[in-house]
Amino acid sequence: MPRGESRLRRALRSAMSGLVLGGGLGLIVSLLPAGHPPAPRLAQAATGQEAPAQAGEDFAYLAERRLLLPVEGVAPAALRDTFNQGRDAGTRPHEALDIPAPRGTPVFAVDDGRLVKLFTSVPGGLTLYQFDPGSRYAYYYAHLDRYAQGLHEGAQLQRGDVVGYVGSTGNASADAPHLHFAIFRLGAERQWWKGEAVNPYPLLSPAQPVPRKP
Ligand SMILES: [Zn+2]
């Protein structure tokens, strides 16, 4: 056991070993480095099926970030978990939270970190990508009505900064403005458009029970 390995990592490692005995995840375990942090990027071994250990690791890291609910005036208890809903007649998973609010409601940065990309897409409309301070996760804000004044790529945002305003740009229906908010675990290349979705709901809704760690 390497010196300095955290209790969480040990727990994860032993959980992973257990999974291997259960079969199927040998590849992931073989990629676990023997040594110290930085933590292994299990995303590299993603097979489409999230290992429970990975979900626990995502949650542990992001819970530490104490994310701010990104829409002004919305109480955590008002959130609905829309992560697992289908979209486009069930052909793709939603993998995000929709937070309804009147058009023009301020949208806050959930965390400190760099604004990496201002991007306009057909489905997302006016969107913004922010990395967490460790550049391990991306926060994605979509359907914005407009950006906050003076925003530019590369800006260091602080938790609570207004980044834009709720709208219905992209494929949102005009009579149902909302913020589409997503979190992605970035790959090793740290590309803002690529990652594995993490459900923001348990991280923004303190009323929810904490997901069980493996
Ligand atoms: Zn959405």
State the helicity in percent bands: 10-25%
**SS content category:** alpha+beta
Give the DSSP E fraction (strand runs of 2 or more residues): 25-35%
**Spans with pLDDT under 50 lasting ≥5 residues?**
14-48
Q: What is the CATH topology classification name of the largest domain?
A: Glucose Permease (Domain IIA)
**Distance between the first and last residues' Cα:** 19 Å
CATH architecture term of the largest domain: Distorted Sandwich
Name given to the CATH homologous superfamily of the largest domain: Glucose Permease (Domain IIA)
Structural domain count: 2
How many strand segments?
Answer: 11
Could you explain how this protein is built, in words?
This protein has 214 residues and is an alpha+beta fold. The chain folds into 2 domains: 7-65, no CATH class; 76-204, Glucose Permease (Domain IIA). Helix content is 18%, strand content 27%. It has 4 helices and 11 strands, in the order H-H-H-E-E-E-E-E-E-E-E-E-E-E-H. The strands form 2 sheets. Strands 3, 4, 5, 6, 7, 8, 9, 10 and 11 form a 9-stranded antiparallel sheet that branches. Helix 1 (7-22) packs antiparallel against helix 3 (52-65). It is globular, with a radius of gyration of 18 Å. The relative contact order is 0.18. Mean pLDDT is 81; it is low at 14-48. Zinc ion binds at residues 94, 96, 98, 180. Keywords: Hydrolase, Metal-binding, Metalloprotease, Protease, Zinc. Residues 93-200 form the M23ase beta-sheet core domain. Its EC number is 3.4.-.-. Its cofactor is Zn(2+). It comes from Azohydromonas lata.
